[in-house]
Design a protein that fits this description.
This protein is an all-alpha fold and 88 residues long. 67% of the residues lie in helices and 0% in strands. α2 packs antiparallel against α4. 5% of the residues are buried. The mean pLDDT is 88.
């Protein structure tokens, strides 16, 4: 799919009923998975042209950054993640 079509698809899905409802969940994961998930979130937020980033508002991007921060903080990986970002 082209970026324009992908953007339209994401916008359609994300504007559906119930998509703005908050969901509370609890899960456990290894520090390795948390660090990888934080990296996936970071890379996804910097990726242009995929259609996803262009389909969500700044509020959703801010929320994803907060989730990333919470995951790293609760797993005591904030310092390590910051060091890895400096290396890039």
């Amino acid at each position: 799919m082209e970026a324009k079509e992908t953007k339209w698809l994401y916008e359609t899905i994300l504007s559906g009923p119930g998509m703005d409802e908050e969901v509370k969940f609890s899960f456990s994961a290894s520090r390795k998975v948390i660090l990888l998930l934080a990296e996936v979130i970071e890379n996804g937020l910097t990726l242009d042209g995929s259609g996803l980033k262009e389909s969500v508002g700044e509020g959703s991007i801010k929320e994803l950054k907060q989730i990333k921060g919470i995951l790293l903080e609760k797993s005591n990986l904030t310092a390590l993640s910051n060091q890895l970002l400096k290396i890039k």
